[in-house]
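Worked example 3 (structure in, sequence out).
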């Protein structure tokens, strides 16, 4: 009996749909809790090629919500451990691990080589970079996020508005799973919905999940949804760059007050509340604002913009 018999019998899949899945190229950014069900269901379904991007290693604190990994994997690159597990699950699928962080430098090449992008990352910088590049390339983006007992999943770009069109006002600060916690089944539910949305796009199901947002709250057992097909795109924002894209004429500002020193010799250490006193050299071609996730840099750019008519770029520093 065929490995895929239970799904090809569906009229929404069939032999033709299975062939489409086998020919599909999927980019998954992030190998954490969202990616665990995403990988298992896409690989199980026979999606042909998956590129998995993440610069992190497996930690014991991951295991309660990332049950794909085992104690023997602790310390290994997540992408390598995940690729090994997926090869054991379905050798007909090729999972290519890339042990690196997503940046604006490598994002265009990664997105050019795929049919659909999955945002399973956990930083504003990665999510917004993926959205910007997917929108420019005309590729669909399935993005999800979970924290505590709730989260969302939605279909963006291609024929739908971008992530920025829906989240035009970012919060001043944001908790993380490390600081606020998360339950494994909550994030697993959203990851499974990401996988379902991805299969629906690849199989061209109607109605399309592109332009659809689903919100899940496990505390109240409530799931809601809305469509955002007509959401307008915001004005061009300050865009993220990679550290390798800094130039000698850039004024580089490290906003991380918690860091003992700037992340590089060219950077100046200026906390966000001291930006009003910043003196900008006349030969500055661009201001680069850096922080860990990109959120403080985003808000600092909005604050600095009215008194600096030149270019402003943002830089996220994961793992620094």
């Amino acid at each position: 009996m065929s490995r895929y018999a239970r799904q090809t019998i569906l009229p929404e899949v069939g032999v033709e749909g299975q062939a489409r899945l086998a020919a599909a190229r999927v980019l998954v950014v992030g190998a954490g809790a969202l990616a665990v069900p995403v990988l298992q269901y896409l690989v199980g379904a026979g999606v042909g090629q998956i590129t998995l991007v993440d610069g992190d290693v497996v930690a014991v604190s991951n295991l309660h919500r990332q049950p794909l990994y085992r104690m023997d994997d602790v310390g290994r690159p997540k992408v390598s451990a995940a690729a090994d597990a997926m090869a054991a699950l379905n050798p007909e699928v090729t999972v290519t691990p890339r042990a690196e962080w997503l940046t604006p430098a490598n994002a265009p090449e990664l997105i050019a080589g795929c049919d659909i992008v999955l945002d399973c990352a956990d930083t504003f910088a990665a999510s917004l970079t993926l959205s910007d590049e997917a929108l420019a390339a005309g590729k669909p983006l399935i993005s999800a996020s979970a924290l505590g007992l709730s989260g969302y999943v939605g279909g963006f770009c291609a024929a739908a508005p971008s992530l920025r069109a829906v989240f035009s006002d970012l919060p001043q600060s944001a908790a993380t799973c490390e600081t606020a916690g998360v339950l494994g089944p909550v994030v697993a539910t959203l990851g499974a919905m990401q996988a379902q949305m991805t299969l629906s796009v690849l199989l061209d199901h109607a109605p399309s999940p592109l332009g659809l947002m689903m919100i899940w709250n496990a505390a109240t057992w409530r799931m809601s949804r809305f469509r955002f097909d007509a959401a307008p795109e915001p004005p061009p924002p300050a865009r993220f760059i990679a550290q390798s894209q800094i130039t000698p004429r850039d004024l580089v500002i490290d906003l991380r007050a918690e860091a003992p020193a700037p992340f590089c010799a060219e950077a100046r250490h200026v906390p966000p509340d001291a930006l009003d006193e910043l003196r900008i050299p006349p030969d500055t071609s661009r201001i680069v604002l850096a922080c860990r996730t990109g959120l403080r840099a985003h808000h600092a750019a909005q604050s600095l913009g009215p008194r600096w008519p030149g270019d402003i770029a943002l830089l996220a520093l994961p793992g620094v």
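Notes: The first strand starts at residue 25 and ends at 29. The chain has two domains: 5-227, 239-316.
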